[in-house]
Amino acid sequence: MQKQQAGDLEGAVKEYRQFLKTHPEATPIHSNLGAALAGLGRYEEAVPEYKAALKQSPSFTQARLNLAIAFYKMGRISDAATQLVRVHAEDPANHQAVLLLGDCYLRMGQNKDVIHSLQPEQKKSPDDLAIAYMLGTALLRDKQRDEGAAVIDRILRNGDSAESHLLLGMTKFEAMEYPAAIADLTKAAEIDPNLPDVYSYLGQAQMASGDMKAARDAFEKELSVNPNDFESNVRLAVLLKQDGNYERAHQLLDRALLVRPKDPGALYQVGATYLAAGDLNPALRSLEALVKQYPEFLEPHVSLAQVYYRLRRKEEGDREREIVQKLKAEQDAQQSKAKGDAQTRP
């Protein structure tokens, strides 16, 4: 413990491990060893130590929080969120836990959970800009524009900031005002190039505007400071797939699926990347699993039909083509109905 407090983490690890050989039941020491390993960036080794502490003492909240942080640092955002939900239930006053949980939900695309978690915290801490920023982002993504605008106004009252320009850029991006969004997002990046999400949204706006080179550069910049950004990983993987860089595309998709393990779009890109590379058997396995899990998702059926035909399995290819035609007809009918409903509204 003296070595750990003095910053000699390697020495602390050695001493803790020596101690645990004769006293493996010492719950706090497993947690201390985990913290020392995490301090050295050795999160894979820290996780078993935190788990050992929690197995011996399931109510050891600090060890659970540290386990969540280790998962977060490793990019295992879903696993981190699972632990943080329990920490928050056991210790609702733990501000660090609820903020980190909100951030995990935000990265996982669970915007309603962000709002549910952070709105009570905002009432307690109305001047906390970190809460305001995450809450505003979730509200905008959830299409609650009026509520999101109120949060943006609160941030703007604190002066010109990267966060305010980012949220304004997000608002314009969601409204498909891409040149205006790019202007605000570029300003945000100039003020704070390390602000999470700024280059992700800038890349998305540039991609929507047709500037693929600029989009690629923006996604690379986002991942250099925020390697767990889901959108940047997936969208850059799509661009790399188009360029034939299949190996890196798969690496990025693997990273994205650590954040959102069941995301159908990312899972589809895995299969589509295999197909583009001509790896038909892994493409087949990926796409068959995907259409089983998401039978109404059109694009995997289209790609799966291509795989079957290339494998000379015509009967199965014809079956997928029929499913594609049926799904397209259903989508067209839904769009026509929505258009008609919009025209009849006063």
Task: Write a structural description.
The protein is mostly helical. It contains 20 helices and no strands. The longest helix is centred in the C-terminal third of the chain and has 31 residues. The model has no long low-confidence stretch (mean pLDDT 92).
CATH H-tier superfamily of the domain at 1-76:
Tetratricopeptide repeat domain
Largest sheet: none
What is the β-strand count? Answer: 0
Q: Report the CATH C-level class of the domain at 1-76.
A: Mainly Alpha
| CATH topology assignment of the domain at 1-76 | Serine Threonine Protein Phosphatase 5, Tetratricopeptide repeat
Helical content stands at over 70%
What is the N-to-C order of secondary-structure elements (H for helix, E for strand)?
A: HHHHHHHHHHHHHHHHHHHH
Q: Are there runs of 5+ residues with pLDDT below 50, and where?
A: none
Strand content: under 5%
Radius of gyration: 24 Å
What oligomeric assembly is this protein in? single chain
Shape: globular
End-to-end C-alpha gap: 71 Å
Strand pairing plus helix content: what structural class?
Answer: mainly alpha
Mean model confidence by pLDDT: 92
Task: Name a few traits of the molecule.
single chain, 346 residues, mainly alpha, Serine Threonine Protein Phosphatase 5, Tetratricopeptide repeat, 20 helices, 79% helix
